[in-house]
Known about the structure:
This protein is an alpha/beta fold.
Amino acid sequence: MRYDLVIFDNDGVLVDSEPISNRLLAGYLTELGHPTSYEESLRDYMGAAMHRVHDLVKERTGQRLPDDFDDVFHARVFAAFERELKPVAGAVDVLERLVTDGVPYCVASSGSHARIRTGHRATGLDEWFEEQWVFSSEDVGRGKPAPDLFLYAAEQMGVAPERCVVVEDSPLGVRAGVAAGMDVYGFTAMTPAERLVGATQLFGDMRELPDLLV
């Protein structure tokens, strides 16, 4: 393959979590007096770290979310993951191909380490990721669209940014990958292609990815 490292986003790329988490986020924000539809949650928060939720609510309403917002939200999400979460169709096929071809890979997610690991355990993807291959926005000062997380992952994996490819499904993630100087393959299963501006390549079925990377 033409790259020395494949960096996967997690939510929506490896685990089919975006419908679950955005449904719950929209419901919780509405419950707290900040009416939000599922579509608005996808538009505003998909691919973002939790601080973006706090920042946008404060910016738009002048109000702060409760101190326990993250804890309550994550408890709801983790419970739903245990009941409903599945891997993205084709994700295991891609990981098998990378292992067969000897191509290093890792995950770099806006989600917390606890969220990543909960999702991976629920879907069986945990067997594909060593602890040292898992990176979270918790590990850096700024989440996506800043490039910090992808640059940190590349550094920790010992690969130069220009030899990395990012697999992303959110506009914020694409912007972060581009800012990091990496090629970005935009996954359009949930996100309209026109929203993934700047992506090097677009694809709609995860099973297509290995051949695109050759």
